[in-house]
Design brief:
The protein has 437 residues and is of the alpha+beta class. Among the domains are: 73 residues, OB fold (Dihydrolipoamide Acetyltransferase, E2P); 215 residues, 2-Layer Sandwich (Chloramphenicol Acetyltransferase). The protein is 23% helix and 25% strand. It has eight helices and 22 strands. The longest helix is centred in the middle third of the chain and has 16 residues.
């Protein structure tokens, strides 16, 4: 969606900040009313579903009004900043024609203004004062989820009387208003590809509450995505353990050769890429809107990153064509971008399979939730030393827990187990992952 800015430069409306972005939260204003600004100067820092972006001024001017306060959510297409209307000092005042006939309409109903007997121009070309925003309308108190419901039903939430605590507008209030207005509720088919709101809010007693944290920003997006995934994909989980004793020896040898530290994660990613090439049905997306399974040609591997802002999943495109060292470099670069919020939004989408390293926090097995519309996700636990047996002998080895969740609509249980076995075999016999150290 491309938002066209008004020509009079008196209002700056929030533009499209990325594919699929419909709203953004004001994190911090960088200007104040009365401040002069230059073109491209940052007006505000805003947070979309997973990215922190700086919104620049499209032109030079003087700030007249800021539409919203820090913490407010602004929809794409709504006014973000108003500018003071100024006349350039070097420009002469606009000339007013001495003889202007009354406005009249042409045959098509377009209003035109007659300047003389030989020249007519559309009235839209003439200089007009911008419409005065309705600032006197009291803003309704409602959660972002309820506001989304109102937008989907094309209901003006500011005109809805709230029955919730403190006069808040609830989802029930919006639905009742839609019935009165004759707006049909969305059908199941309409909701297949629609963004999933959080559960309908209910009033809870506040006694004993130590901290109140609003669902917004990344946490809100995580909640929506997870809820949509568990309501859409049919999850099943297969678990196993891999003996990575030999792989750990190879990894240590490669570290000594390169003179740098390497975690086990890029080796696991390499094994997953090879496993997906052998079991392509797990390297797929599901388009529920057109009821189609889309098996992908290349592996775009997502890797969950734990940040102070919440879980983020950057994507390594064409991971199946990268070496272990290249995968390690990509992981470090993307993780750094996630943690300091500089990662490009395009690198947070388009994955075909995801790996989540729960072992970094000390976990073993897990039941990971699929990163919809993907059909598979692998959670790896923490490697532990254990007494193992082989050919009747005991030895001290390292064991890596593996937990695979798949969408049962696409992946049969046996195929999921075979894929996990392929990954396990590659990790236990790493000859195909890297040369002899």
């Amino acid at each position: 969606m491309v938002i066209k800015q008004p020509n009079d430069k008196s209002h700056f409306i929030l533009p499209d900040l990325g594919e699929g972005v419909h709203e953004a939260e004001i994190v911090r204003w960088c200007v104040a009313p009365g401040d002069p600004v230059k073109e491209h100067q940052t007006l505000a820092e805003m947070e979309t579903d997973k990215a922190l972006v700086e919104v620049p001024s499209p032109w030079s001017g003087v700030i007249k009004e800021l539409h919203g306060k820090e913490g407010d959510i602004v929809n794409v297409g709504n006014t973000l900043v108003s500018y003071a209307t100024q006349v350039e000092p070097d420009s002469p005042p606009p000339r007013t024609p001495e003889h202007v006939e009354p406005d009249e309409s042409d045959d098509a109903g377009t209003v035109v203004g007659t300047v003389d007997s030989n020249l007519t121009v559309p009235a839209s070309f003439s200089r007009q004062a911008p419409a005065t925003p309705q600032d006197d309308v009291e803003k309704a108190r409602a959660t972002p989820a309820v506001r989304r419901i109102a937008r989907d039903l094309e209901i003006d939430i500011n005109a809805v009387s709230g029955t919730g605590r403190g006069g808040r507008v609830t989802a029930s209030d919006v639905h009742e208003r839609s019935i009165v207005a004759g707006t049909p509720l969305p059908t199941q088919a309409d909701e297949v590809n629609a963004p999933t709101p959080l559960a309908t809010p209910v009033s809870l007693p506040l006694e004993g509450v130590a901290q109140r944290i609003p669902f917004k920003g990344i946490r809100r997006k995580i909640a929506q995505s997870l809820l949509h995934s568990v309501q859409t994909a049919v999850h099943f989980t297969v678990v196993d353990e891999a003996d990575v004793t030999e792989l750990e020896k190879r990894r240590s040898g490669l570290e000594a050769f390169l003179g740098r530290r390497l975690s086990l994660l890029p080796f696991i990613m390499s094994a997953v890429c090879k496993g997906l090439q052998k079991h392509p049905m797990l390297n797929a997306n599901v388009d529920d809107f057109i009821e189609e399974i889309q098996v992908m040609k290349h592996v775009n591997l997502g890797c969950a990153v734990d940040t102070d802002h919440g879980l983020m999943v950057p994507v390594i495109n064409n991971a199946d064509s990268l070496t272990i060292v290249q995968l390690a470099d990509q992981i470090a670069q993307l993780a750094s971008g996630c943690r300091d919020r500089t990662i490009e939004r395009e690198l947070l989408a388009g994955g075909t399979f995801t790996i989540s390293n729960v072992g970094s926090a000390g976990g073993a097995f897990a039941t990971p939730i699929i990163n919809y519309p993907e059909v598979g996700i692998l959670a790896t636990g923490r490697t532990r030393e254990r007494v193992l047996t082989k050919d009747g002998t005991f030895y001290a080895g390292s064991v890596l827990p593996l937990s695979l969740s798949c969408d049962h609509r696409v992946v049969d249980g046996a195929e999921g187990a075979r894929f996990l076995q392929t990954v396990k075999d590659l990790l236990q016999n790493p000859t195909e992952l890297l040369p002899e150290a």
